[in-house]
Amino acid sequence: VRLVESGGGLVQSGGSLGLSCSASGFTFRESPMSWARQAPGKGLEWVCGIYRDGDTYCIDSVKGRFTISRDNADQMVYLQMNNLEPEDTAVYYCAIEAPSLWTFDPQRDDSWGQGTQVTVSS
């Protein structure tokens, strides 16, 4: 399993960023995928997830601002983030996980990528 995140950067409050996750080494089209984040000094937090049929789920704090999508042909998962807030500053990771199986305190494992840093300035 290999997951590689990209697209992070520095943006002003109210700005937008699009994250990408390249996946390989497993049957992507059959797998639910999720994005999680870790803010400075805090634990990991699930953000958005997408099932193999395209159904999506995002936590309340990002609903209406973040959109998750997938491209099964290219084995990619995306997270479009609009109207960013300083509280969105974190390292963002993609993972093979269904929203229905999210736990309160997720832990990274060897299948997770290195993450991509998102910094939102006020």
User: How big a fraction of the residues is strand?
Assistant: over 45%
Low-confidence stretches: none
> Number of DSSP strands?
10
Helix/sheet category: mainly beta
Biggest sheet descriptor:
6 strands, mixed
Mean pLDDT: 96
Terminal CA distance reads: 37 Å
Helical fraction equals under 10%
* Global geometry: globular
Strand order of the largest sheet: 2-10-9-4-5-6
Q: What letter string, H or E per element, gives the SSE order?
A: EEEEEEEEEE
Q: Taking Cα atoms only, what radius of gyration do you get, to the nearest Å?
A: 13 Å
Individual helix count: 0
Please, could you describe this protein's structure?
The protein is mostly beta strands and 122 residues long. The chain is 0% helix and 47% strand. It has strands at residues 2-6, 9-12, 17-24, 33-38, 44-50, 56-58, 66-71, 76-81, 90-95, 116-121. The strands form two sheets. Strands 2-10-9-4-5-6 form a six-stranded mixed beta sheet, with no helix packed on it. It has a four-stranded antiparallel beta sheet with strand order 1-3-8-7, with no helix packed on it. Strand 5 (44-50) and strand 6 (56-58) form a beta hairpin. The protein starts with a strand and ends with a strand.
What labels would you give this structure?
single chain; 122 residues; mainly beta; six-stranded mixed beta sheet; four-stranded antiparallel beta sheet
Walk me through the topology.
Layout: E1 2-6, E2 9-12, E3 17-24, E4 33-38, E5 44-50, E6 56-58, E7 66-71, E8 76-81, E9 90-95, E10 116-121
Parallel strand pairs: 2-10
Antiparallel strand pairs: 1-3, 3-8, 4-5, 4-9, 5-6, 7-8, 9-10
